[in-house]
Design a protein that fits this description.
Helix content: 25-40%
CATH topology of the largest domain: Aminopeptidase
Cofactor: Zn(2+)
GO biological process, one term: proteolysis
Bound molecules: 2-acetamido-2-deoxy-beta-D-glucopyranose
Number of helices: 12
Family: Belongs to the peptidase M28 family. M28B subfamily.
CATH superfamily of the largest domain: Zn peptidases
Structural class: alpha/beta
Radius of gyration: 23 Å
Largest sheet: 6 strands, mixed
Number of strands: 19
Protein name: Peptide hydrolase
Keywords: Hydrolase, Metal-binding, Protease, Signal, Zinc
Length: 488
């Protein structure tokens, strides 16, 4: 699961849209993310795009920043200020250089934000804090300077963390970074949409139940420990998108999907530095032009500067769920009325890049997507809590979540179904593109896994629970089999 982001800028910044004619286009090509941003004349200096997955944006109060100038991916691209993962290829010198670069970058940001550009020693302040899973950084200039403040937060929702707001300067406004006009979600489905039709006709079927009940803890464990590097003989120490092992993980997934009889398995490379997406397709027998997609992400993230990133929950759990779905298709010789796609994405942790590439491609080809669902963090159960299945509170298609909630209650009676504010994962790429999409998550309420984005995200630890993962997998499998129109 990628972190959600809030940027705080003062209220004046998001005043009425600025006419594009007077705007300046700035093209940024940092190491990973090409982007163009529009600024009003005179405000160009206030933007700084900085190294790797770090970028900082700010503008003084006098500048009106075009609200839609921030591309949707922007909200994710600046998440990691001081958390870049040490890559396997990094030497100690690389790490030291990166740290210094970050410090220079932050200093440079502060210096450049003043009237005086000649490299003066800047008494800027950085505050860092943490509240539950909300981590944040505030860069603040002294009071006699023009107002430039940036809050780079992760997993902070204004409504979830009211106390965070109390800690901010009085004239700071918190905005969800997803800006109007940047996305075109589809929130109301037409009456003849298959999701709406299914909602009216959904009925428990014993034949489907007996397939779903085949979800097997032993094979889930075998797959997820291989991915996390805990199984004897597993070569993996990290699945970070930019690591060499990310490519090897994708190749391993491809070989597994091929062994489960997918009609095609594609390695979809969309960015040279990243491992590819892995896309298995079962062609529909009746309505091949209609597509149902189940996704998870195979990349992961460890602790800052720690080269080990096992990602057993995030998102080894979802990846093993995908393999389980393919395995059960093979074991039962299942086929589908609609075309059924199993997608293991990379680049999720850096900003949903792999899924965005696929959603964009499908959109450009005018593909019909009946639904897309994502499973991200499916296996952690806080000691003492029941097995749970949560649907997202935001960035989803409500009618779809409502249907799948009912599917889950019908086929997985052992789980307690609810809602989570935890955010963000690959279904959003599809939701943003106007496709019906939602996600499955392990807990009703916020993230509870203490090893989230930590090198200790292992299988063999307290709270990692295969009965939780089994229930999550059953719920997702029943959902896609219902909507893809499975044939027994
Ligand atoms: C910038 O600050 C330096 C150091 O205080 C000062 O010497 C210089 O004159 C200033 N330049 C301008 C253009 O204000
Ligand atoms: C879900 O089930 C409830 C209770 O049976 C029903 O009222 C509702 O219409 C169902 N929703 C969908 C989308 O199937
Ligand atoms: C699998 O199903 C297809 C039709 O869906 C059928 O032609 C084939 O014989 C079946 N194979 C096995 C091994 O049951």
């Amino acid at each position: 699961m990628v972190k959600s982001l809030l940027v705080s800028i003062s209220a004046a910044l998001i005043a009425a849209a600025v006419s594009a004619a007077s705007a300046t286009h700035w093209e940024f090509v940092d190491n990973t993310i090409p982007r163009t941003v529009e600024f009003q004349p005179g405000c160009e200096r206030e933007l700084r795009g900085i190294y790797e997955d770090l970028s900082i944006y700010a503008a003084p109060e006098s500048c009106q920043l075009h609200a839609s100038a921030l591309p949707a991916e922007h909200m994710y691209s600046q998440l990691i200020v001081l958390e870049r993962q040490k890559l396997e290829s990094d030497s100690e010198a690389d790490v030291r250089e990166w740290r210094e670069t970050v410090e220079d970058a932050v200093t440079g940001f502060a210096v450049s934000s003043m009237e005086n550009d000649s490299g003066i020693d800047t008494p800027f302040k950085i505050f860092r804090g943490r509240r539950k899973f909300c981590r944040f950084t505030i860069i603040d200039l002294p009071e006699n300077q023009p107002l430039y403040r940036v809050l780079i937060g992760s997993n902070c929702a204004a409504e979830d963390t009211p106390n965070l707001i109390d800690m901010l300067p009085a004239n700071t406004e918190i905005l969800p970074v997803r800006t109007a006009g940047a996305v075109t979600p589809l929130n109301a489905l037409p009456a003849d949409h298959p999701i709406v039709v299914k909602s009216k006709t959904l009925k428990h079927r014993q034949s489907l139940q007996s397939i779903v009940d085949q979800v097997d803890v032993k094979t889930l464990e075998k797959d997820v420990t291989w991915l996390s590097g805990e199984a004897p003989g597993s070569p993996f120490t990290t699945r970070s998108s930019t690591s060499k092992q990310s490519v090897e993980v994708a190749e391993w997934l491809k070989s597994q999907f091929l062994s489960y009889g997918c009609d095609t398995v594609e390695l979809m490379t969309y960015r040279s530095m990243f491992g590819p997406n892995v896309i298995c397709t079962f062609k529909g027998t009746e309505r091949p032009s209609e597509h149902v997609i189940i996704g998870a992400h195979h990349d992961d993230r460890g602790s800052f500067l720690n080269p080990r990133a096992p990602g057993a929950d995030d998102d080894g759990s979802g990846s093993s769920m995908l393999l389980q779905v393919a395995r059960i298709i093979k074991n039962n010789n299942l086929s589908f009325g609609r075309t059924f796609i199993i997608a293991a994405f990379s680049g999720e942790e850096q900003g949903l890049f792999g899924s965005a590439a696929l959603a964009k491609k499908l959109k450009s080809e005018d593909t019909t997507i009946t639904m897309m669902i994502q499973g991200d963090m499916l296996a952690y159960r806080k000691p003492g809590e029941p097995i749970q299945t949560a649907f997202p509170a935001r960035y989803h298609t409500p009618e779809l979540s409502s249907l799948l909630r009912n599917v889950t209650e019908l086929y997985v009676p052992e789980t307690v179904v609810g809602v989570t504010g935890a955010c963000c994962s690959d279904h959003q790429s599809f939701w943003e593109a106007g496709f019906p999409a939602t996600a499955f998550f392990e807990r009703n309420g916020p993230i509870a896994d203490p090893k989230y984005h930590n090198s200790g995200d292992l299988v063999y630890r307290e709270g990692y629970d295969f009965e939780q993962l089994r229930a999550s997998t059953k719920a997702m499998m029943a959902s896609v089999f219902e909507v893809a129109d499975v044939k027994f």
